[in-house]
Design a protein that fits this description.
With about 475 residues, the protein is α+β, with helices and mostly antiparallel strands. The chain has helices at about 5-30, 30-55, 70-85, 85-115, 125-140, 145-175, 175-180, 195, 200-215, 290-300, 315-330, 335-345, 355-365, 385-395, 410-420, 445-474; strands at about 60, 65, 225, 240-245, 255-260, 260-265, 280, 285-290, 305-310, 330-335, 365-370, 380, 430-435. The chain folds into two domains: about 5-170, no CATH class; about 190-445, no CATH class. Helix content is about 55%, strand content about 15%. The longest helix is centred in the N-terminal third of the chain and has 32 residues, at about 85-115.
Length: about 475
């Protein structure tokens, strides 16, 4: 959790540092990068040696962090390795940047194909983006120094832009209320995706570490809710949930929201439509009551939810409802395998339905829908994902986040909402951590247990078939 917001430390100082850093990068480019890499090498060596010394002195903490022999050796190893390949580090970074550009080209191509298949307007822009990234990426691969200079120019310009936005925010925070209203922010530039993608996961690890050390001081779940200073504690009109797990793909998170008492979530919930390493599939939207959905998620998937409550005006509420009507206009009812079999009176025991949609329906009564048309008809993890839908709805209420290359991750949204919470005069009025209560066990099973049981049933059926076949051959 962030500390109290102060304009000088949170806006002015970072803004000045970023602008200065951007100018330095643009002026010195490769020389700046070489000195930076040398500094990183020295830091790794010094910190690794310091950890080894502390271990020899039988001290297991350094700077408030627990140290291990493996961590010390890895730090020293990285420092030594960087020293041996000092002349190649710049080119390695250039190569990685080239690969990143080509990955963007592939993502734009997939997005264009999906939009063309679904006849989505404006798809030609993705084709042009694909051709641009593809051409740029190939040029970078065959010109050794160009990727480095291009990468540094982009980083320098981006740092100046990000710093400028911080300075504008500082000026805005110093203005009186009337002038502040006239100078309302139109956009807000976000941190790069690779920096914020795992922010919720890092926050979760810090919280779990705190709870493990202070377990006796935690009285109950109510301590996990925090309200904005000088704002009365009240029920938010809309709540955004950022999901995160400690490991696996859930570390990058998921995003949905609750409005008018219903959780609305979008994702690749039809497991039988998934393809391209489960990154593409039919887009599925569901409605579920919050009081049943949240306990299910934190138990079934071992998730922790970060909830950010927003206070909306009547005008904003109506804008959100209108936007929801637009997005959900092409919906048609879709049923999970378990729900479909129940209606047709051919359902097996629930353990034969390991898919998430069936389990969610059983324990929450969720209603699932698919899209007849539109950009959300097909789910794609790098574009039309869960956060895109939440952002499409919240933008009608006045959120002001700018996507880097059109990609928003749950981490991007967490970073945005967390910053809005600590700032005065924003619509984010509360933040809540929803975690499983070990003293109040639920009837909801674990996803790992459900899938393990299903595999066991499949093996039993295969064994029975083999036995029956062997009897027939005799």
């Amino acid at each position: 959790m962030r500390k109290k917001f102060t304009p000088v430390l949170d806006q002015l100082l970072p803004g000045l540092v970023l602008v200065a850093l951007g100018i330095i990068i643009l002026c010195w480019k490769t020389m700046f990068l070489r000195w930076t890499l040398l500094l990183v090498e020295m830091v790794c060596l010094v910190s690794g040696i310091a950890m080894l010394v502390m271990l020899l002195l039988r001290r297991k903490e350094l700077g408030g962090k627990r140290i291990t022999l493996s961590g010390a050796l890895i730090s020293v190893g990285i420092g030594i390795a960087m020293g041996f390949v000092l002349d190649y580090q710049v080119y390695i970074l250039g190569l990685l940047f080239s690969v990143y550009v080509l990955i963007n080209a592939a993502a734009k191509l997939v997005n264009f194909i999906l939009f063309a298949k679904n006849k989505v307007k404006g798809r030609i822009a993705d084709l042009f983006d694909c051709l641009f990234f593809l051409t740029f990426g190939i040029l970078l691969l065959f010109t050794p120094i160009l990727p480095v200079d291009s990468f540094l120019i982009i980083i320098g310009i981006y740092a100046i832009l990000l710093g400028s936005f911080n300075l504008i925010e500082f000026i805005r925070s110093m203005l009186p209320s009337r002038a502040k209203t006239r100078m309302r922010r139109k956009v807000r530039i976000s941190l790069p995706v690779f920096l914020v993608a795992f922010v919720p996961h890092r926050v979760l690890k810090r919280i779990n570490a705190y709870l493990s050390k202070n377990a006796d001081g935690i009285e109950g779940p109510e301590e996990f809710t925090q309200y904005k200073e000088h704002v009365p504690a009240e029920t938010p009109d809309l709540e955004v949930f950022i999901h995160v797990t400690e490991g696996g793909s859930g570390a990058m998170g998921h995003c949905d929201f609750c409005f008018d008492g219903q959780v609305i979530s979008y994702g690749n919930y039809d497991e039988y439509s998934r393809r391209l390493f489960e990154g593409v599939g039919d887009g599925v939207l569901f409605y579920a009551p919050k009081e049943r959905y949240v306990p299910f998620v934190i138990r079934y998937s071992r998730k922790t939810l970060f909830g950010f409550g927003l206070k909306l005006t009547e005008e904003q509420k109506q804008a959100v409802r209108r936007r929801l009507e637009e997005i959900t206009a092409p919906l048609y009812r879709w049923k999970s395998p378990y729900e479909w079999d129940l209606e047709h009176k051919c359902a097996k025991p629930l353990e034969y339905y390991p898919d998430y949609a069936s389990q969610l329906y059983r324990y929450t009564g969720a209603e699932f829908y698919k899209f007849n048309s539109g950009k959300f008809k097909s789910y794609f993890v790098l574009s039309t994902n869960c956060v895109q839908l939440v952002d499409a709805v919240l933008s009608s209420a006045g959120t002001d986040i700018v996507k880097i290359n059109g990609i928003i991750t749950p981490g991007t949204y967490y970073d945005y909402l967390d910053r809005e919470f600590v700032r005065p005069d924003t619509m984010v009025i509360s933040r809540t951590i929803y975690a499983e209560d070990p003293d109040n066990p639920s009837e909801v099973p674990r996803e790992t247990d459900v899938r393990a049981r299903y595999q066991e049933l499949c093996e039993q059926e295969k064994q029975a078939v083999r036995i029956e076949s062997s009897h027939e051959t005799r």
